[in-house]
Specification:
381 residues; 15 strands; 7-stranded parallel beta sheet; alpha/beta; 17% strand; 38% helix
């Protein structure tokens, strides 16, 4: 089976990293087109052995990109076109139709009740999304919560399939040597209780709540923020105003493997090993992948929204606690974790529910359901 993945950009982000990980495990012949920003993740995908084409779109209204994309799809003779993120879903579905490919799948990675991909939802955004959706065959939701939101928008249930995000469980196993090494590199005392926050530094992630909570906690509590984004300078100023300048570390953009980060930043597995707890004050998440990665590293997690945790099998246990997205509540929850001083635990069995090989298998079944006629041969990578 030959599949073309079309994505808006390939800088570091949850959807972008998830695509790279999927490509390593999908038993199909895959190529990738990025509409713009062939950044860090694009270089990683190429290093993994998958071809990436940068379409070089100049902006959201660069309609001249459509015929170029359609020609690329037609020339490649793809069985399936799979689109990721809003702009790529719109342009990719139209171009696939122009190229005569009707087996079009789209993954909705980041749809909340009031925002999509970190931006406010408007009536116009929703109308354009639904118009484009009708040009495809199936929409993949990364969690049941996202599937329900799509259905409330008007996407028929029979056109929605839930394929959860997945992680490489072995990669995120706790590493005590990496903990010591990473703490020394970041200037974190062995005695510090390190609370991590992982994600884009945007308004929606509400890391300001985490900083306000830390200001109420004892001085041995340090915050480690992993990620970059438009609110980084604002968060740095807030840390100074709250008297936390020495108790907050901004790690920057981290890769999912060691040695792949910008400016020598330790990989995310090492950064998670350096933490004692992981916090997510974001009140509106589509999945919550960072929290699953934290659980896989044996961390206790505290969250305001995490469909991934809500989606664990019935009876599954994980060290994850819900907390309202306000500073007082997070301070109370984190103080309880600090006081408990529990030893690092193995990853809970529940995280195996989100093994990347399982996600890849479910996605292949979606592909088979949309390809007309006999199922094309699947070519192991």
């Amino acid at each position: 089976m030959k599949v073309l993945h079309i994505i808006t950009g390939l800088g570091v982000g949850g959807a972008e990293l998830q695509l790279r990980l999927l490509l390593r495990h999908l038993p199909a012949d895959c190529d990738v087109v990025t509409l713009t920003d062939a950044g860090t993740v694009a270089r990683g995908i190429v290093a993994d052995g998958t071809q990436v084409t940068d379409l070089g779109m100049s902006g959201n209204r660069d309609v001249a990109a459509l015929p170029r994309l359609a020609r690329l799809i037609k020339t490649g003779r793809y069985d399936v076109v799979h689109t990721h993120l809003y702009r790529a879903c719109l342009y990719g579905r139209i171009a696939a139709r122009m190229a005569g490919v009707r087996a079009v799948v789209a993954t909705e990675h980041s749809l909340g009740d009031s925002q999509m991909e970190g931006r406010p939802l408007t009536a116009g955004v929703r109308a354009l999304y639904l118009a484009g959706e009708r040009l495809g065959r199936m929409t993949v939701a990364v969690s049941p919560a996202v599937g329900q939101r799509l259905n409330r928008w008007g996407v028929p249930r029979q056109r929605i399939r839930v394929v959860p995000n997945g992680i490489d469980l072995d990669r995120f196993r706790f590493d005590p040597a990496a903990r010591v090494r990473t703490r020394r590199r970041l200037g974190l005392p062995d005695s510090a209780f390190v609370v991590g926050g992982v994600g884009r530094l945007t308004d929606g992630k509400r890391f300001d709540v985490l900083l306000h909570a830390a200001a109420q906690l004892p001085e041995d509590v340090t915050v480690l923020l992993v990620g970059t984004g438009p609110r980084e300078q604002e968060l740095r100023r807030l840390a100074h105003r709250l008297g936390l300048a020495d108790r907050v570390r901004f790690a920057g953009e981290a890769a999912h493997e060691e040695g792949g980060g910008a400016d020598g930043v330790p990989g995310l597995p090492s950064l998670l090993s350096a933490m004692d707890a992981l916090a997510s004050p974001s009140p509106e998440e589509a999945f919550g992948l960072a929290l699953v990665e934290g659980l896989a590293c044996g961390l206790p997690v505290i969250y305001a929204s995490c469909p991934a945790v809500d989606g664990f099998p019935a009876g599954a246990r994980a060290d994850a606690s819900y907390c309202p997205s306000d500073a007082d509540s997070f301070a109370q929850g984190l103080y309880g974790l600090r006081t408990a001083l529990l030893p690092r635990r193995p990853a809970p069995a529940a995280v195996r529910h989100y093994c990347i090989t399982r996600s890849a298998e479910r996605l292949m079944r979606v592909y088979a359901s949309v390809v007309p006629g006999p199922t094309p041969e699947v070519n192991p990578r």
